[in-house]
Amino acid sequence: MDVSRALTLVAVVAFTLQFLIFLYLYPSYRARFFRYLLWAWGLFALGKAFKLVAAPFPPSDGGWVSALLDAGGAAGFLFILAAALAFRWGYRIRPSHAVVAVAYVAVVALLGRLSPAGSGGMPLV
User: Fold this and answer.
1) pTM for this structure?
2) DSSP assignment of the chain, as one string?
3) Can you give the pLDDT at residue 96?
4) Residue 114 CB partners (closer than 8 Å, separation 6+)
5) pLDDT along the chain (125 residues), means of 10
6) When you count CB atoms within 10 A of the terminal residue's CB, does the N or C end of the chain come out lower?
7) What local confidence, expressed as pLDDT, does residue 75 receive?
8) d(Cα 14, Cα 11) in Å, to the nearest integer?
9) CA–CA separation, 94 and 67 (whole Å)
10) Residue 115 to residue 5: CA distance in whole angstroms
11) Which residues contact 93 (CB under 8 A, 6 or more apart)?
12) Cα–Cα distances in Å, from 24 out to 6, 19, 21, 30, 84?
């Protein structure tokens, strides 16, 4: 196993363990920020696991896989931001905020799809 896949495997295990710990703690501590944190960590863990599983296969999808990974990462970062705002100031995701977030994630996915090297949208985050 090369170094890149080994590091991705370590990241998958770390994110999954953290997600399972958060999931275990959630029933006793039902706060809005914690729910947003669960969504973010779930997206990060799924994204890393999908990247690890898709790594051995040749990219014949035209960039859609990297675009989806970029979109999931951007959505995870936005959930982290929402969790931080909810913890400090009682923030709640409203429909107008969700529309802006979906538009941002779509732009990140489109930039990742258009980039010839893939993962072109992540520097935007």
Assistant:
1) 0.77
2) --HHHHHHHHHHHHHHHHHHHHHHHGGG---HHHHHHHHHHHHHHHHHHHHHHHTTS---STTHHHHHHHHHHHHHHHHHHHHHHHHHH-----HHHHHHHHHHHHHHHHHHHH-TTS--SGGG-
3) 94
4) 63, 120
5) 84 88 83 87 86 73 73 90 89 92 91 58 45
6) N
7) 92
8) 5
9) 26
10) 22
11) 36, 82, 101
12) 27, 9, 5, 11, 20
Quote the DSSP letter at residue 59: -
Whole-number Cα distances in Å, 13 to 3, 28, 30, 47, 97:
15, 24, 25, 12, 32
Six-digit token string for 58: 């040749």
Name residue, tokens 């970062």: 77
| Calpha distance 28→75 (Å, rounded) | 26
Which amino acid, 59?
P
